[in-house]
Amino acid sequence: MRVLGIDPGSQTMGWGVVDGDARRYSLVAFGSIRASSALRFSARLLKMCNGLEEVIAEHRPDGCALEDAFLATNVKVSMKLGQVRGVVLLSAERAGLEIHEYSPRLIKQTVVGYGNAEKHQVQEMVRLLLRLKSLPTPHDAADALAVAICHFHHAQFQERIAAV
Predict the structure, then answer these.
(1) Rounded to the nearest 5°, which phi and psi values hold at 109?
(2) Which residues participate in catalysis according to the annotation?
(3) What is the pLDDT of residues 131-156, one digit of tens each?
(4) What secondary structure letter does DSSP report for 103?
(5) What pLDDT digit, counting tens, does each position of 66-79 carry?
(6) Which structural domains are found in the chain, ordered by start?
(7) How far is CA 68 from CA 5, 25, 134, 136, in A?
(8) pTM for this one?
């Protein structure tokens, strides 16, 4: 199975593609899609959408896993993040990908073993789990890889529950 992990953001969207299953997985590619804050927000959404569609076309994932919405202290930030997530969901659905969402806390718990882990801890565990020589950067891409890894660990349980 090939999974595209997404860490949505209105200026930087991290993405990572991982092949494998719950016991063994390997890195395919990772990166980020950046949109300048000088652009109108609608133009940033379009840039994110086009960039994500290019990633999907190039790497042909079977599924998409993304970080679920979280409550930010700033309502305006939460609204923008929701719109970016909408772009991700639409792009994944348009490509016919199976979509899975995971909370930031569950992702950190799964990858690091601690739900309140910090960015550098997530980066280091992603490096170790994917047997990389250096930390995946930017941290948005490392977070996206962590989402994909989280999916591998939880997908088998979701399949078992669906079978029952």
Answers:
(1) -60, -40
(2) 7, 67, 140
(3) 999 999 999 999 999 999 999 998 87
(4) -
(5) 998 766 677 888 89
(6) 2-163 (3.30.420.10)
(7) 12, 22, 27, 21
(8) 0.92
